[in-house]
Amino acid sequence: MDKITILNSQEQRQVFFRLLKYVKPHIKQIIIAFVLLSLVTIGEVSGPILIKIFIDDFVAPNNIVAGPIITLASLYLFILFTSAVVMYIQSLKFQEIALKIIQQLRIDVFSKVQTLGLRYFDKTPVGTIVSRVTNDTEAIKELFVSVLAIFIQSIFLFIGIFVAMFILDIKLAALCLLFLPILIWIIHMYRKLSSTSFSALRELIGQLNAKLNESLQGMSIIQVFRQEKRMRKEFNELNTKHYEAGIHNIKINGLLLRPAVDLVHIIAILIVLSFFGITSMESTIEIGVLYAFVNYISRFFEPVNQVMQQLTFFQQAVISAARVFKLLDEKELAPQQENRPVQISKGKIEFRNVTFSYDGNQKVLKNITFTANPGDTVALVGHTGSGKSSIINLLMRFYEFEKGEILIDGVSIKQYNMNELRQKMGLVLQDAFLFYGTIKDNIRLHNEELTDEDIIEAAEFVQANQFIEKLPDGYNQQVTERGSTFSSGQRQLLAFARTMVTNPKILILDEATANIDTETEEMIQQALAKMRKGRTTIAIAHRLSTIQDADLILVLHKGEIVERGNHQQLLAQKGLYYKMYLLQNGHSENIADVVQQEI
Known about the structure:
Blueprint: H1 9-20, H2 27-59, H3 66-115, H4 118-123, H5 126-168, H6 170-176, H7 179-217, H8 219-224, H9 228-256, H10 258-282, H11 287-328, E1 349-357, E2 363-372, E3 377-382, H12 388-395, E4 403-408, E5 411-412, H13 418-424, E6 425-428, E7 437-438, H14 439-444, H15 452-461, H16 465-468, E8 478-479, H17 488-500, E9 506-510, H18 518-532, E10 536-540, E11 552-557, E12 560-565, H19 567-573, H20 576-584, H21 591-598
Parallel strand pairs: 3-10, 3-11, 6-9, 9-10
Antiparallel strand pairs: 1-2, 1-4, 4-5, 7-8, 11-12
C-alpha cells in the first residue's frame, strides 16, 4: 500500500507550477479566453453603474424622460445579452483547453507505465496504478475545467469591482480593502487544514481500487477457501478510513468555506450601511451610489465564495497531481539498451558468471554460466525457487542484472535494439494471456506487416487451426477478456501461434505445456519439435519427460547450476536430476531419499 504523503505549501506550489507547464502549448487559446473573460468582467461591472445612473439621474429627481431611459434600458439589456454569449464562448474555450491538457497528461502517464520495469509492478498494486491513471487525472481535470477558470474570472472581477468602487467613493473602497487580508487568511487556513484529509482521501481511493482489483481477480480462490468474510472485513476497514477522512474534510469545509466568508460579507454590508448612515447626517447621499456599493459588495463576496468552494477541487487536484507526477518521475525503468545496429543472425546464447537479485539483497542467481549453441535446445529444471524463471527474465531483458554478461551471437544483450530482441526472440509463458478482440487480432497483435495468410500458416504450424476452424466465426471469433471462453490448452495453442508467426531465431518456453492436457500435449509436442528446428531453444520444464531430447539440461538448485549434461548423462550421475526423474516416474523406493535430500 502507498504511504500517505502530506504536501507542505512549497511542495503544493511546485506541483501547481509543474501542472501549468501543460498550458504552454495552448497559450494562444488561453489569450483569447482571457480577452473574452475581460469583456465578461466589463459587462458584470457596468450593470450596477447603469442602474445607479437610472436611480440618481431619473428616479430620485423624478425626471422621467422616455428617450434617455429607453436608451439606458437598451444598453443594459445589450450588455446582459452580450455578456451571456461571451461568457458561454469563454467557458467553452476553457473547457476545451482543459480537456486537451488532461488528454495529454493521460497519454504521458500511460506512456510512462509502458516504460517501467517489472520491478515497479512487482512492488506496486495494479489498482493503485489504475487509480492514478483514471481517478487522479480526473481530479486534475477539475483544476483546469473549473478551478482555474473561476480563479481567473474572480481575479478579473475583483479588479473590475474595486476600480468601480474607487470611482464611486475612494474612502469606502479603501475601507473595503481591509477585508482582503482576512479572506486571504481564511484561504490559507483552509488549505493548511484540508491538505491532510485530501492526501488521505486520494491514497485511500487508490488502496480501495487495489483491494477491489485483487478481490475480482482472485474471486474463485476467495470463494473456494471461504475468504469472503475476511475480504469484507479488510475492505470495510479501508472504507471506514476513507469515510473518516471524508468526514474530517466535510467539517473543515463546513467551518471555513461559506460560513466564514458569509460572516465577513455580513460585516462588510453593516460597515457600508453604517458609513452611508453616518454620512447622511452631514449631507445628502445618492441612493444609486448606495445601491451600487451594496451590489458590488455582494458581487465581490460571491466570487470569493466560489473560489472557496473551488479550493476543495484545487486541493484534490494538487494532491492527485503529486501522485501522478510521482509515477511520471519513477526511476524504476525497464532495462535500457545501447541500440547499436547489430542483428541476431544465428541465435547463440552465452551466460557468463551472471549474478542477479530482485531486491538487491537476496541473490536468486549465482554465477550462472552456460552456452546454448545455434539450433540447440537447453532445458532448465529444478525445484520451485531454484532460479529457472529468473534466467528467462534476464534473457528477455525484463530485469537488469548486477554482475556477469549475457551474449547473443557474441554481442552483449545490452547492445541490441529492443525491437531486434523482441522480433528475434519468441516467448511462450505457462499462463497464456489473450486480449479482448478476435483470434486473428490476438495472433497478429496489430503487426500490420503480417498478412492473413501468415496468421493461418502459423496456426496450422502449431495445429491450432484444428479447433479454430470449428468455431462459428473461425479466425474472426470474438475473444473475451483473458480468453476465458477457451480452454487452457486452446489458449496455449494460440500463444504458440502468436509466437511462431514472427519466425523468431530464439525460442523461450517457460513451462509452456504445464497447463495442457495429455491429448493436447501429444498434439503440440510434434509442433514443438518443428518449432525448435533451426532455432535456439531455452525451455523450462517441470515434467522431465518433455525435455529428454534436449541437447543440454541444466539442473538448478538455490540459484546455482549443480548439474549439467544430456538426459542419459544426468541419469548416469545419479544426482539431483536422477532423483527427480525417479520421483516423477513413481519409483517409491527412492522417494524417501529425495525427501531426505531436500531436508
